[in-house]
């Protein structure tokens, strides 16, 4: 009997291979999950200026808001509720000074729906020349869509 068990142990050699079949199964399941969820990850926001479905941005500090009224005049709001009329040169100088002190300050452009779009683009060019890295366009929620969602 001792001879039979010795033969069985000699015939069975240890395998030095890794069984990769479970890893392939897991990889295929993850691939399917990513393929299904990838189209759902739409990072852009559809904006129909001046109204959109964009959610409000929560900032720790008050953002700098540049407003363009229907007549094309510029207004600068450094704190909530403080709106002062400025010329294009003064706007560029003041925003440039603010960005020099705090490069990560949030800058938004609020253009009136009836304002000339060229004036809004001019405001964006002024902000670009004032070394502002990122500029956001402000919009108000569409009243028809917000009431339909209730």
Automatic annotation (TrEMBL):
Bilayer topology term: Single-pass membrane protein
UniProt entry tagged with the keyword Ligase: no
Domain of life from the UniProt record: Bacteria
Keywords noted in UniProt: Cell cycle, Cell division, Cell inner membrane, Cell membrane, Membrane, Transmembrane, Transmembrane helix
PANTHER family registered for this protein in UniProt: EXBD MEMBRANE COMPONENT OF PMF-DRIVEN MACROMOLECULE IMPORT SYSTEM, TOL-PAL SYSTEM PROTEIN TOLR
Protein family according to the UniProt entry: Belongs to the ExbD/TolR family.
Name this polypeptide is given: Tol-Pal system protein TolR
Provenance organism: Lysobacter arenosi
Lineage: Bacteria, Pseudomonadati, Pseudomonadota, Gammaproteobacteria, Lysobacterales
């Amino acid at each position: 009997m001792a001879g039979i068990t010795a033969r069985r142990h000699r015939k069975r050699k240890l395998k030095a291979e890794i069984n990769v079949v479970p890893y392939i199964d897991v990889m295929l399941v993850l691939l399917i999950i990513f393929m299904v969820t990838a189209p759902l990850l739409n990072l852009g926001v559809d904006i129909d200026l001046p109204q959109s479905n964009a959610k409000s941005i929560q900032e720790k500090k008050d953002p700098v808001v540049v407003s363009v009224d229907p007549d094309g005049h510029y207004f600068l709001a450094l704190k909530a509720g403080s709106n002062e009329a400025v010329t294009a040169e003064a706007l560029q100088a003041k925003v440039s000074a603010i960005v020099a002190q705090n490069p990560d300050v949030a800058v938004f452009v609020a253009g009136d729906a009836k304002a000339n779009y060229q004036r809004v683009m001019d405001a964006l060019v002024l902000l670009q020349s004032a070394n502002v890295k990122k500029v956001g366009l402000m919009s108000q929620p569409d009243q028809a869509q917000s009431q339909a969602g209730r």
